[in-house]
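Recall the central idea of this unit: under ordinary conditions, the amino acid sequence of a chain determines the structure it adopts. In this exercise we apply that idea directly, starting from the sequence alone.
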Amino acid sequence: MISVTDSAKKQAIRLMEDEGDINSFIRVGVTGGGCSGLMYNLTFDNSEKDGDKAFENNGVKVVVDQKSYLYLIGTTLDYSGGLNGKGFTFTNPNADRTCGCGESFSL
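Accordingly, the structure predicted from this sequence is:
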């Protein structure tokens, strides 16, 4: 399961409202790339696919494809709006190494 912090929840709802689709959910995935080998992918979606893992945390629906789920078990999704960077961040207990920007990781 992926945990969603209050700040990530607020920002996700704000973005969904801005897009005019409050019925969408957060889709999180992992793709190859980045300086550490694997990259996080976060989008808004409104249709589930075969094999997706869907769950709700902190009032937010999160959907992960089956392959990515294995890399993301126990991850926390947060949002930072500070001076050092703005955006969604992932805290992944499965990652052995992360890059300086926090957008990629390796196992």
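The radius of gyration is 13 Å.
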